[in-house]
């Protein structure tokens, strides 16, 4: 493990989880504790280390902070806070899924506590960033890779009022049935044992529906969803099913189109994409300027 030294690890006693909350935070050179509020991008995957670990996989040659500073050097964005909360067990064996766990007792993995990761994110992580780091309360973006993409889209579907933009690379998006009104019964995406604490065993179709980002999008306020900038990318079709989530990404884009939402990403399926951190970082490099434009529109509208 090689954690970027520019990232600061924040730990606090979480009243929601009953164990320590953990998050890496990057502050730009302009940041001052008593300075003006700064826009914030929440980067999700699972463990808090993943976006700032240079050796997260063999493909990687930097971190999200390197990406941010490259884009900043080109003058495409201004100062931003980057927040990378831990939304998994401390050993990264059990994903949090941005879900309040049904059966946390089914795992002995450290760092789970009550397993109420959705409540933890919305009621502790977001307020902490605003209280302790001066994050702008009206300029929040969220992004994710793989299950982080699932969580980013789920967060926006649950609370579209909280975010101005969302991006995801090669997200693990479940399919839905009956016009998006219920989860697809035989989708195998979330059947693995590591999801048992979050979703229960055996799986319950109603519960799967309540945690399916597609179903949640179709329940959400469409006007609020359309105010958000969406950037969805994924790997190419020819490396499905193990090398990319092409079909799941295409499915999400079709659902968004029915809601009147267009994809702001310049290319959706990356021809040379793969389910790797190197390509996830490349997605972030394309997405950050679009997030920043969304921030500028919101902040200008308040002046």
Question: Would you write up a description of this structure?
Answer:
There is one protein chain. With 303 residues, this protein is an alpha/beta fold. It has one domain (8-302): Rossmann fold, CATH 3.40.50. The chain is built from nine helices and nine strands. The strands form two sheets. Strands 1-2-4-3-5-6-9 form a seven-stranded mixed β-sheet, with helices on both faces. A two-stranded antiparallel ribbon has the order 7-8. Helix 1 (64-73) crosses helix 9 and helix 3 runs parallel beside helix 6. The longest helix is centred in the C-terminal third of the chain and has 26 residues, at 277-302. The chain starts with 7 loop residues before the first strand and ends with a helix. The mean pLDDT is 96. InterPro entries: AB_hydrolase_fold (IPR029058), Esterase-like (IPR000801), Mycobacterial_A85_antigen (IPR050583).
Shape: globular
Q: How confident overall, as mean pLDDT? A: 96
Cα Rg: 18 Å
Distance between the termini: 44 Å
Q: At the first level of CATH, what is the class?
A: Alpha Beta
> What helical percentage do the residues reach?
25-40%
How many alpha or pi helices?
Answer: 9
Runs with pLDDT <50, length 5+?
none
InterPro entries: AB_hydrolase_fold, Esterase-like, Mycobacterial_A85_antigen
Protein name: Esterase
Pfam family, one: Esterase
GO molecular function: acyltransferase activity, transferring groups other than amino-acyl groups
Question: What is this structure, in a nutshell?
Answer:
This protein is α/β, with parallel strands linked by helices.
